[in-house]
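[step 3/7] inverse_fold.run input=structure_tokens len=448
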């Protein structure tokens, strides 16, 4: 027979078990509730999403978690996100991908694209909705590691690079015309060592009659299995553009400065050089590369009227182009609005197309699981003017402007503070109130 003490102890054990179970149930459901609340870090609500990869161009909600796109749906409950931003009336696009910039600004070398002619990327990218850039050959295999150490590794912008076939990089004619410093093997070896960061080989500014720079660039590109980008330098009868596009370059190689008009892209009769069409048919890419001297209305407009659109829109950003006709990525994209292209079309040529050209198909799109690089753009109506390389003006009635930029899931630029609370709703002694899970600008050091 059990003693009352034993009964009582059994009873206590039973009660303990029930309480324990109850506690566990509360914990589990509580956690589920908490998980529901913190399911997403950042939710962009009600924007017009343009995602060329999926073909979506419609009002959607976009949710981000842990730096990647977590959901893109008609409606996402705001209570499921830590931070919600109302972006109605604005375009939501993949972070812009600009594959022709010069950002090796740290060397102190005068009048050099491996120096003073370059710009520091973070000062020029996020404010234009750009999250990824590819430096177009400012460095070669001899100085790429210095470029990586001083710029690539220190920038918040995702900086990739075309490696110049010239070992010394883009430092003026003395270097860029030196045929003995264009070695395919060391360039290819370095490209393989930094695969994914070095996305291509560049040849540029060559003034001589030889094909050597192009041939060696293609050899390096073939060895490293990456594309070549060509700035075709001086126009020489010994190496005509149609031979470049139909014989020398491989499908997937990139002809930048495609609207410069400096190398017979447009013939004197106003017709596009048939070599441009033949190159396109073979899969050679045509890229804008506006820069300071590669975008003339008298070339662009006939080319577009004849149906020759650019595969990718890139700026050739440097210290000269940014203050002249080019200015920035969105100004350049707006030039194509003025020429009658649609927003969706322009976005495709500034995101998904260039991402694939540099073999980074995880970028330039808003698929679930992709890095959460997002641009929030406003399409403004008004009277605008767009100038070309010669200072000629074209009038436009619309312009794209960057409202907000998100890189790897965190807000890195917010023009009008649309992600921010009104100051007088905050405690009188407020300090930084952002959360580091969505905010790269004002994250509070400690969460409240
Ligand atoms: Zn350039």
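[step 3/7] decode complete -> sequence:
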């Amino acid at each position: 027979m059990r003693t009352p003490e034993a009964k009582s102890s059994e009873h206590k054990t039973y009660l303990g078990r029930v309480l324990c179970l109850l506690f566990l149930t509360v914990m589990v459901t509580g956690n589920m509730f908490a998980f529901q609340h913190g399911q997403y870090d950042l939710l962009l609500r009600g924007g017009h999403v343009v995602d060329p990869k999926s073909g979506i161009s419609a009002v959607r909600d976009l949710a981000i978690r842990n730096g990647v796109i977590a959901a893109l749906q008609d409606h996402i409950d705001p209570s499921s996100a830590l931070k919600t931003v109302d972006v109605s009336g604005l375009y939501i696009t993949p972070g812009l991908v600009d594959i022709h910039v010069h950002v090796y600004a740290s060397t102190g070398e005068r009048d050099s694209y491996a120096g003073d002619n370059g710009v520091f990327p973070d000062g020029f990218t996020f404010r234009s909705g750009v999250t990824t850039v590819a430096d177009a050959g400012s460095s070669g295999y001899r100085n790429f590691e210095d470029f990586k150490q001083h710029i690539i590794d220190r920038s918040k912008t995702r900086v990739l690079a075309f490696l110049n076939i010239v070992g010394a990089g883009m430092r003026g004619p003395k270097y860029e015309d030196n045929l003995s410093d264009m070695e395919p093997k060391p360039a290819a070896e370095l490209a393989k060592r930094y695969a994914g960061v070095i996305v291509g080989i560049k040849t540029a500014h060559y003034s001589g009659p030889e094909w050597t720079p192009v041939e060696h660039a293609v050899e390096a590109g073939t060895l490293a299995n990456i594309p070549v980008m060509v700035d075709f330098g001086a126009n020489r009868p010994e190496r005509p553009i149609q031979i470049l596009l139909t014989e020398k370059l491989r499908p997937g190689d990139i002809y930048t400065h495609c609207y410069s008009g400096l190398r017979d892209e447009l013939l004197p009769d106003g017709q596009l050089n048939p070599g441009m069409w033949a190159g396109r048919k073979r899969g050679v890419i045509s890229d804008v590369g506006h820069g300071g001297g590669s975008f003339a209305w008298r070339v662009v407009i006939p080319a577009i009227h004849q149906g020759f659109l650019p595969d990718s829109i890139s700026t050739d950003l440097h210290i000269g182009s940014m203050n002249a006709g080019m200015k920035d990525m969105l100004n350049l994209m707006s030039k194509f609005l003025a020429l009658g292209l649609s927003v969706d079309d322009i976005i495709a040529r500034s995101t998904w197309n260039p991402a694939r050209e540099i073999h980074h198909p995880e970028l330039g799109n808003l698929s679930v699981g992709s890095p959460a690089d997002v641009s929030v753009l406003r399409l403004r109506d008004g009277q605008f003017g767009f100038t070309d390389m010669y200072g000629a003006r074209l009038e436009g009635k619309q312009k794209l402007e960057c409202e907000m930029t998100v890189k790897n899931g965190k807000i890195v630029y917010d023009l009008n503070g649309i992600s921010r609370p009104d100051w007088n709703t905050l405690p009188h002694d407020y300090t930084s109130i952002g959360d580091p899970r969505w905010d790269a600008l004002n994250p509070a050091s400690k969460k409240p």
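[step 4/7] annotate
The radius of gyration is 27 Å.
Residues 100, 102, 136, 291, 316 surround zinc ion (CB under 6 Å).
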